[in-house]
Amino acid sequence: MEIIPVLDLMSAMAVSGKSGHRETYQPLKSVYSSSPDPVEIASGLKRQGARQIYVADLDAIEKKGSNLELVQKINHILPVMLDWGVKDFKSFEFALNFAHKIIVATETLNSLDELQTIFKKFPQNRIVVSVDIKNGNLLSKEMDISLESFKNYLIDINPSQIILLDISQVGTEKGFNKDLIDEFADFKDSLILGGGIVPSQIKSLNENGIKKALIGSALHKGEIPLKLGI
Predict the structure, then answer these.
(1) If both were cysteines, with which of 14, 20, 165, 218 could 224 make a disulfide (CB 3.0 to 4.6 Å apart)?
(2) Could you tell me which CATH class the domain 2-220 is placed in?
(3) Is the CB of residue 9 less than 8 Å from the CB of residue 57?
(4) 18: pLDDT strictly greater than 80
């Protein structure tokens, strides 16, 4: 299993928090750097063998500015998989100038039509669909669609990379919701899991065929290593 480090950015700083309550996030303390400087942390992760990095620009997602210049600096160190609040085709196209892969997250996406246009216009290896889930329901600010309906839509467009992100579990270290894995069994080869994964789960996730996982809190605390000896 590949461990993909997570960096959340806010006001040009790496931050950490729980369950998506972004107003309470604090500067990140990471074993990979002596400061919450995102560039320093990315450099430390690369030295330890990271191959790519997931970056969430929380300011952009909350429509309070952006950290795109900083993202570009990180992308020169490690290929960035960026979530900056893509809502449509134009915002996706713009973000491609700053990161290796762009995430289209259900939380911020305007419509399924916009997602369809993105898939028609751009190569699949630059697109990552994030299925954002909170309290068991699909999280979306703009789309009125159930988790089941969106899952059926994904079958039609067949993305090569799908993040299954349980926002309720982010930063809690309570373990990933295994029921979600079962619900998305049809996409197992494409899945990237995120949200509360703990060391004790790594072996079972690996045995269940999960190839990639997003790790934030447990990685930065040194509880899960970048290189797994399973």
Answers:
(1) 218
(2) alpha beta
(3) yes
(4) no
